[in-house]
Amino acid sequence: MQFLALLLTAIPVFGTRILLPELTGPHKVGLRNLELVDHGRVDPFSPSGSPRDLGVTLFYPTKEEFSKHLPLAPQFAPAVASHVDDVLSLTPGTAASLTTRAHLDAPLTAEVASAPVMLFSHGFGFTRGLYTALLQDLASCGWVVAAVDHPYDAGMVEYPDGRVVPAQNWSWPLDPPVRELALDTRVADLLFVLKQLGGAMEADGRRGGLYLQEDAEGIYENHTLKAMFNTSRVVALGHSFGGATAVEALLNSSAVVAATDLDGFLYGPVVRVGTDKPTLVLGFPEHYATDDPTATPGWPALHGWRRDFTVAGTVHESYSDYSIFADILGTEGPEAGTISGERMIQIQRTYINAFFSNFLSGIDDNGFLSKNDTQFPEVSLRRS
After folding, report:
1. Full DSSP string of 30-55
2. Helix (H, G, I), strand (E, B) or coil at 313
3. Rounded to an integer, what distance in angstroms lies between the CA atom of residue 138 and that of residue 346?
4. What phi and psi, each to the nearest 5 degrees, are found at residue 255?
5. Residue 265: CA atoms inside 13 Å, Cβ hemisphere, count?
6. What is the widest separation between alpha-carbon atoms in the chain?
7. Phi first, then psi: what are they for 128, rounded to 5°?
């Protein structure tokens, strides 16, 4: 569950930027990087015992007239970009050139108040930025996605003011008590972000606050956020240990109504007591995604609607932007799998959208998630 090295071969650069794939949904996308501090919770991994301090990226649908003159956001903050270059053995400066299709600090429009909300948790040792291609595409389909960095197990967290928190010197697998503490802490992170999104967060714009766009002339109401996100019923998505986090959140909040686990072993109280809430699993075929062979299997704990799909040609890292990097950076190797990055985004977007839209919004999938589909021959229903 650690980063694996990629070898850089050829880089298609557009000016000074390397663009992620185009969005496929009907909406333009905005992106905001936030710092949310939970002053009511001491970070159990902070050497100084400081409050839990989260880095969050918000992806959200916006309107072209409000975003067309705004720059596209970089995929990574500067220090994280250097970290990614290091870990992936890229030519220095490569990760800093990676550019999203989301407009940086695009105004929030009134429509976000009714948009469905998705919480996202990254894999152990990864960072939230390493899932940008998928998350921005989901936002283009109408989702508000809050991607959370979990400090001290994220590879590196960089805050808007430039402060950084590198990962602790941990290695996977974690000792079970540490793993349980890390999982509990991650779930609390997601639920704190959910609470913040559900309240009227007010922030001074000079500090990167969020605003509700009033009209095309750029008039804001009192220069504070008055956008209320729809947090009464939300969904959770995660990769690897983030998948375990997403499923565990089902047990910890009545607001979280469904979870998707991208190739993550399940741990924690949910394995012991189970959940009746719906769960979708996507993973690579060579192992059972929910079931760590050294721990209690997670699949039997899923008592409600459940589906486990495998995707041929994938490896564990295929469920991050690794496969996209293989496409746009010209890299090859088993760490990215044999499936193309754009195809992986298409598969994940389609299955995640169908699942969450069904259980959050009541949009019938017409049996799509109950069988194999000829449009996606790589995807096989393994368990239900």
Report:
1. EEEEEEEEEEEEE-TT-TT-PEEEEE
2. coil
3. 10
4. -75, -25
5. 18
6. 59
7. -60, -30
Q: Cα(196)–Cα(190) distance, rounded to whole angstroms?
A: 10
H-helix or E-strand spanning residue 84: helix 78-87
Beta bridge partners of 103: 30, 72
pLDDT in tens, 241-271: 999 999 999 999 999 999 999 999 999 999 9
Task: Tell me which residue has tokens 């096989």.
Answer: 380
Among residues 319, 344, 354, 365, which one has the least CA distance to residue 1? 319
- What's the whole-model pTM score? 0.90
With tokens 């997403």, the residue in question is: 246
Burial 295-309 (b: 16+ CB within 10 A, else e): eeebbebbeebbbbb
Query: What are the residues whose beta carbons fall under 8 Å from the beta carbon of 155, sequence distance 6 or more?
Result: 3, 80, 83, 84, 87, 125, 126, 127, 166, 167
Q: How far apart are CA 33 and CA 31, in angstroms?
A: 7
The tokens for 33 are 């990087």
Angle separating helix axes 341-361 and 132-140, nearest 10 degrees: 50
Helix (H, G, I), strand (E, B) or coil at 333: coil
**Each residue's pLDDT tens digit, 61-86:** 998 887 888 999 999 999 999 999 99
Are β-strands 156-158 and 256-262 bridged in parallel, bridged antiparallel, or unpaired? unpaired
Q: Is the peptide bond before 300 cis (omega within 30 degrees of 0)?
A: no
Give which of 92, 52, 101 is closest to 72, Cα–Cα. Answer: 101
HSE of 42, CA atoms in CB hemisphere, 13 A:
4
Asked if 294 and 173 count as a contact pair (C-beta separation under 8 A), the reply is: yes
Find, among 74, 97, 73, the residue nearest to 85 by Cα: 97
Do the beta carbons of residue 146 and residue 120 sit within 8 Å?
yes
Residue type, 161: D
Whole-number Å distance between alpha carbons of 292 and 266: 7
CA 360 to CA 340: how far, in whole Å? Answer: 30
